[in-house]
Design goal:
Length: 269
């Protein structure tokens, strides 16, 4: 069976003595910084109402929400029994990884705290952040590919690859599929709506579109991604990633309906 050679890239980008910088960590740093710059741009030009000086503070809140929520989500959703026996490994985010759904919950909690502390609209802040999240998702999935983790199911497609830890059979490079769907395409959709529609003037609308878009992309992506060996299918061929995406679809649909049915708008300056 023909397979494309996997580009073996060292997961450690730079190593100086005991200090090492991994692609995975770099992906989070770049995603947060690029997302922060994009949110500053949107706050100045498109989704107004948040002083750009507060965006700097928002970055700190979101960083804590993403990292703490993402790691705790992975621990609780995917391998709780393992981490009960090995609690000392919980802080080692490069071992096992992060959960997007956990990071989403962590970010939501952070946004609620930020909105209350700074006395700004929660939905307006959520809309700003939602437009930037696909940027972080894109870099994160590329890092998954470089690490040779979260690879796809066995396949005979022409672009299938043999991953270092995936056995001898060629597999879908599902990390790249997810980078395209959850990252590039979702970002392009949100950017187009921000600039070409009135949805940004309706609080909660962009958040709703993001939740629906990500939920659909994740459910499709899971069809190609190898099922986690320690979980298997949750029920009737449904994976944990698909199951956790269902509440996102429901919440996204509710927010979009609420935004389109409402009469309160944010005026662009």
């Amino acid at each position: 069976m023909f397979a494309i050679a996997f580009p073996a890239i060292d997961p450690v980008l730079v190593e100086i003595g005991p200090v090492s910088i991994r692609w995975y960590a770099l992906a989070y740093v770049v995603g947060l910084l690029v997302g922060w710059l994009y949110v500053r741009y949107l706050a100045r030009t498109q989704i107004t109402g948040l002083d750009t000086r507060l965006v700097d503070d928002l970055l700190v809140w979101c960083t804590l929400g993403v990292v703490l929520g993402g790691r705790l989500g992975y621990v609780l959703f995917y391998q709780p029994a393992y981490f009960i026996e090995h609690p000392e490994e919980i802080p080692l985010v490069w071992q096992g990884g992060m959960s997007f759904h956990g990071g989403l919950v962590g970010t939501l909690i952070a946004l609620i705290g930020f909105a209350r502390f700074r006395k700004v609209s929660l939905l307006m802040v959520a809309d700003l952040v939602a437009c930037a999240v696909p940027l972080g998702l894109f870099f994160g999935r590329i890092a998954n590919f470089i690490n040779g983790e979260l690879y796809g199911r066995v396949s005979d497609v022409a672009w299938a690859m043999v991953f270092p830890n995936g056995g001898p059979d060629p597999r879908h490079p599902s990390q790249l599929y997810q980078a395209i769907m959850e990252g590039f395409l979702l970002f392009a959709l949100l950017a187009a709506l921000v600039h070409l529609s009135r949805l940004p003037t309706r609080p909660g609308a962009m958040t709703g579109v993001f939740l629906i878009g990500y939920g659909i992309a994740r459910i499709i992506g899971e069809l190609f991604r190898e099922v986690d060996a320690y979980l298997g299918f949750i029920v009737s061929g449904i994976t944990m990633g698909q199951l956790l995406s269902l509440p996102m679809l429901a919440l996204g649909a509710f927010l979009l309906y609420r935004a389109k049915a409402g009469h309160h708008f944010i005026t662009k300056s």
